[in-house]
Amino acid sequence: MDREEARPQRVIVAMKGHPGSGKTTLARFIAATLGCPLIDKDDVRDSTFTIESQLDSNKTNTTIQQLLNNLSYEVIWRMVKTQLSLGLSIVIDSPLSHKSHFDRLVNMAKCFDGTQLVVVECKPNDEGEWRRRLENRGKDGCDGSWHKPATWRDMERLLEGYKGCTEYDVGDVPKLVLDTTAMDVKVTEHTELVLRFIDACTH
Questions:
Q1: pTM
Q2: How many other CB atoms are there within 10 angstroms of residue 46's CB atom?
């Protein structure tokens, strides 16, 4: 049976994972293979640089960053809603670190009949490879994403700040966990695993 025929009207593929975990690369392959829109939270956050630099200097830098980060999520939720209203499946590239963000997607999926939400989590088991990727990206300027951790110490501080909030229960929402640092597995193979996972979840 053809994959598109086997799926419900819409599928939300919600990526999950820390910076440098390989989720953006995988998200792009998934979206290209499915032929559906990709909404990248960093595309929105990257665009707030001018705003951040012009905001009231009396506010702490952390407060400003939190405000703009929250704004970035609000923007992508609106974009997701628009795509779903058009009957389109969608891939969302964001850390999905907080359960409140996950809950928004659950509620959004419920608002559109025939919509299946699935989570694809990129969880690097090889910390050395994860660190190498992250620091190499940092040397290249994080591809213009100045707000991303550029060093391993930056990453450690980010994880400390999460205080374990990233490890939450997704309930009955299907979730696939992939080790994107496995050197013997290509991104195309991971993409195929995701497609099979979606097929299994939507039959």
A1: 0.83
A2: 17
